Amino acid sequence: MKVLAVGFGRLWTAQTVSSFGDGVMAAALPLLALTLTRDPMALAVVTAAGTLPWLLFGVLGGALVDRWDRRRTMWVADAARALLLAVPAVAAAADMLSIPLLAAVAFLLGLGGLFFDTAATAYLPDLLGRDPARLQRANSRLRGAQTAMAGFAGPPAGSALLALGRSVPLLADAVSFVVSALLVRSLPAMPRPVPEARESLLRQARAGASYVFRDRLLLGLALRPAVGNVAFMAVETVLALFVHERLGLGTFGFGLLLTAEATGGLIGAGIASFLGRKLGTGTALTCTAAVEGLAILVLAAAPNPYVAGLALAVCGAGMGATMVLGPSLRQTIVPAHLMGRVASTSRMLAMCAAPFGAFLGGWLAASFDVRTPLFAAAFLLLTMTAVTATMTSNRRVEAALRGVAPTGDPARPGPEEPVRESVPELL
């Protein structure tokens, strides 16, 4: 239906604008902290505060999203984050900024992001009729926009806006949230999932987590980003040092290598649907995971910056494709009433793994040399590929897709839920 095409366009625009604001803050927040202190631990606190909500409230947040109207959850989260940013903006204008304030703002922004991202993940399959091909194309566009805005356009803009005044990037991010909230507010309403028997929030959260761990396909889809985050954080922790010591590049060269990785990510997101059609989603996921591991192995042994840049671009392409194929499959096969909890459980596992990867990378570099974390990361990625290959095989994926009811939810629609017409070609 045409209204659904318009709805996805608005959602895509909203997330593109919001991703630009995220990129602005990704550059501005640490730079703002740097104007207040040179203490590495204080700077780390500001950075870590943004990830804490996922560690502390990930599964509970998913359970709440499964209780709430998802469209309302998204626009309220965006509106709340816009209002929140007024506090540090005023504090910056009054020269009252502090590290505790920035850490608190980062934490609350992360909490808003938890609710928005989880609700958006649960809303999209309802909007697109849970069609696997359309979900892959939609996630490809969303992922591409996120990479372009948060990875390319946002960070330089954040640095430039900060030069105009400490309040300016904060206000720019607030405006992006306002625009996103207004667009999301205009999205079409989707029927709510069939309500479950009245249970405590904790019991519902536990049910969502156990659903992931009992299903081998969903567990395989969750293990890939979790193990991948250990590996990639181990690499990211020492990458700047590796580039300086082994490749002889300075700050500008390091930035170019990161740009190569982001470019690969855009390409990978763009070809994900093609790979899924040609290889099957399960085989495509196994291939992209293997490509990531082999690319990191090439990076570790790279004799010059050109080989390193190519390796990072290929790794980014594998990551970009994986981050389209995996979520699209999950959105297709998970019952609507569990989508928030399943998505947040998977995201929480990935977020919990990241600090361990950072510690592992630093310890290996200090104990051995700067290339050791890269070799270890490649070993982890290739081992994970072998372990999860059967868990996410084409046979298992096809069996899961056959078990999905026409509405995408095995539960029978409630009497208030209208029968949805087949969705035309939207994307």
UniProtKB/TrEMBL annotation:
Gene3D superfamilies: MFS general substrate transporter like domains. It is found in: Cell membrane. It holds the Pfam family MFS_3. The keyword Ribonucleoprotein does not apply. InterPro entries: MFS_dom, MFS_trans_sf, TM_effector. Keywords: Cell membrane, Membrane, Transmembrane, Transmembrane helix, Transport. It is a multi-pass membrane protein. Residues 2-395 form the Major facilitator superfamily (MFS) profile domain. PROSITE patterns: MFS. Residues 401-427 are annotated as: Disordered. Residues 414-427 have a biased composition (Basic and acidic residues). The chain crosses the membrane at residues 42-63, 100-124, 170-188, 221-243, 249-275, 282-300, 306-327, 348-368, 374-392. This is MFS transporter. It comes from Actinoplanes ianthinogenes.
